[in-house]
Amino acid sequence: MSSPMTPGIAPARLPAEDIATNFADLHAPYTPHEAAVASDRCYFCHDAPCVTACPTAIDIPLFIRQISTGMPEAAAKTIFDQNILGGMCARVCPTEDLCEQACVREAAEGQPVEIGRLQRYATDTLMARQSHPYARAAATGKKVAVVGAGPAGLACAHRLAMLGHDVTLYDGAAKAGGLNEFGIAAYKATNDFAAREVDWLLGIGGIAVETGKRLGADLSLDALSEVFDAVFVGVGLGGVNALRAPGEDMDGVTDAVDFIADLRQTNDLASLAVGRDVVVIGGGMTAIDAAVQCKLLGAQNVTIAYRRSRDRMTASRYEQDLAASKGVRLMFNVLPVAIRGNGTVREIELEYTADTGAGLQGTGETICLPADQVFKAIGQTLDSDAGLALDGRKIAVTGPGRTGRAGVWAGGDCATGGNDLTVTAVAEGRDAAMDIHTFLMT
């Protein structure tokens, strides 16, 4: 992130109390009465479309019925059986595009059952207990290395430990959690929830965590394969794509993922430096999260500039509308062609684009926006594949995460087949664990 001394970029643009209010929980948790009322709206459908829409196949009608009958902890167990990170997914999952969009109430009334909030109510209730809800099976004597402590790695490690295997969980960062810890907007996961969820998950036992160990730099698959009976790779996407526009190396231009990570790890949001005129390049969730949080920190003008049309944005329409409601300007069909300033960014030139059917093309028409801070959020790349075969820019996998190397599985954002969602990464980690278990016990 740029230095607070960079002209135009400064901390404490708002009073600390205003920032605290801005970064409060986006959706207040249900009270027991609210949860009871919300659960009564469910039709408890047979062959419920919401279950089909859930990447982890949670039995949604069952857990909602359990809430409606006063058994939220049983509901949580139903959720965790399929998705051990159900607490975080209840906060960050795009339910508006998945289970809630498929809800029969949505089709009939335009108002779905609030499945995500009900899931949070159930999981929060159970997680408040002191004891972990799962016990380990008898020890198998098998050892598995899980490289990457994000959603996929955590889900894989938990399931393997539950099945009786000994797991060592490696991560290159200083703490476990992956994108849940470093890449999610702070107003979606408040009160250190990501770290608390990791601690809760590790309560199963049988999982040793080693941080500061990065695949390629500190770990090799050859060395791991000599010590462990199987290896799961869930390293996410650590690299960031370049804008390839003149001036992107100027002071004040930085990666949105680094900004969000700094924000998530700070103990004082008022100390974070933010510009007056901020431009975020990109159309995904990282772009939305960075832009909204800049606005919440006190930036006066925040613009998201996306090269394609609105319906091509990977961020959901709900998230786009959320950004607009916070005062973020959304520009579509614009592409950065130059960043200007005397060593420090002062403006960005954007060219209007058109999708002609033969690909995206510039129209020649440009517009310049004042900018003292520019964030790049145009996608991430694989940092280290450690020699595994690739399919495009991700690790090639078949079935439940099998790579081309015997004894090595992969899942989450680093592997092919997913859609870069936390909930999908959890499903892939869980399914790989079950396949690893079969492999180890055969």
What do these coordinates show?
This protein is α/β, with parallel strands linked by helices and 442 residues long. The protein folds into 3 domains: 9-24 and 240-379, FAD/NAD(P)-binding domain; 32-127, Alpha-helical ferredoxin (Fumarate Reductase Iron-sulfur Protein, Chain B, domain 2, Orthogonal Bundle); 143-238 and 382-441, FAD/NAD(P)-binding domain. The chain contains 17 helices and 19 strands. It has helices at residues 16-22, 32-39, 49-53, 60-68, 72-82, 86-92, 99-102, 104-109, 115-127, 151-162, 179-182, 193-201, 221-227, 256-265, 285-297, 317-325, 422-441, and strands at residues 9-10, 143-147, 166-171, 207-211, 230-233, 239-240, 253-255, 274-275, 277-281, 301-305, 329-331, 334-341, 345-355, 360-370, 373-376, 380-381, 390-391, 394-395, 408-410. The strands form 6 sheets. It has a 5-stranded parallel sheet, with helices on both faces. Helix 2 packs across helix 4 (60-68), helix 4 packs antiparallel against helix 5 and helix 15 (285-297) packs parallel to helix 16. The longest helix is centred in the C-terminal third of the chain and has 20 residues, at 422-441. The chain is globular and about 65 Å long. The protein starts with 8 loop residues before the first strand and ends with a helix. The model has no long low-confidence stretch (mean pLDDT 95).
